[in-house]
Design brief:
By secondary structure, the chain is α+β, with helices and mostly antiparallel strands. It contains four helices and eight strands; from the N terminus they run ααβββββααβββ. Strands 1, 2, 3, 4, 5, 6, 7 and 8 form an eight-stranded antiparallel beta sheet that branches. The longest helix is centred in the first third of the chain and has 7 residues. The protein is globular. The N and C termini lie far apart (about 45 Å). The structure holds a DNA duplex.
DNA sequence: TCCCCGATTAACT
DNA sequence: GTTAATCGGGGAG
């Protein structure tokens, strides 16, 4: 099976982000076994982008973003969550694509374990959930996703452009946010149906419903 | 050193 | 719709 090559990632974030929709991300666990998920939601973070961690220059935390394409950038937020990005573009540019949502394909048992036994539909729907399901943390910051390692992309079945929607990025405060979030229309792996709207959660009681 | 707050999530009303 | 949980980064003093 072929991994997505270096050249795939050495392109502008606005090309890579939609092209990752429908691709497979594979994780080989240290304890053995592997998981496979299908990416269905991404966000692009560009150079000179006020919403990007790289905007204020290189630091120890974001150093991986300034490395060569095809490597991971993993950051820690809110004192408890990890989020996984792929570095893209040219070496030193400081641009990346955040993986925000995926559909579980294989290795569900392992992912359920890392996610604390939540419902399957909640395994990978969200950047922190995805990272947790695949047991990805700062230890993966800067690792190569093209050669070697225990985390990589495979071609999968890229989603046709007609079924990819775009809109404002989630959680970005910058005024006049740009539509650099991409997702597969109708996929249950998308973290939010539309900008600022959460999908219905069958596991929890909702106002107006009887339970 | 101090202080604020974040590319989030889960559990509330 | 609202908010607690939880902590490291980075700017200010």
């Amino acid at each position: 099976v072929t991994r997505l090559p270096r050249g795939f990632f050495e392109r502008p974030a606005l090309e890579v982000a939609p092209d990752l929709i429908g691709r497979d991300l594979v994780r080989r666990f240290p304890a053995g076994g592997r998981a496979r998920v299908r990416i269905v939601e991404t966000e692009a973070y560009l150079p000179d982008d006020p919403a990007s961690h790289a905007f204020r220059g290189r630091t120890d935390r974001n150093a991986a973003m300034f490395g060569p394409g095809g490597h991971a950038y993993v950051y820690f937020v809110y004192g408890m969550h990890h989020c996984l990005n792929v570095v893209v573009g040219r070496d030193g540019e400081g641009t990346a694509v955040l993986l925000r949502g995926a559909e579980p394909i294989a290795g569900l048992e392992a992912m359920r374990g890392f996610r604390g036994g939540v419902a399957d539909r909640l395994l990978c729907t969200g950047p922190a959930r995805l990272a947790q399901a695949l047991a990805v943390d700062r230890g993966h910051d800067g690792v190569d996703l093209v050669r070697g390692g225990d985390l990589w992309f495979e071609p999968g079945s890229p989603t046709p452009a007609a079924r990819i929607a775009r809109g404002p990025r989630v959680g970005v405060r910058a005024a006049a946010d740009v539509p650099w979030r991409f997702w597969e229309v109708g996929s249950p792996g998308v973290s939010r149906i539309g900008p600022g709207v959460s999908p219905p959660d069958p596991g929890r009681r909702r106002a107006g419903s009887r339970g």
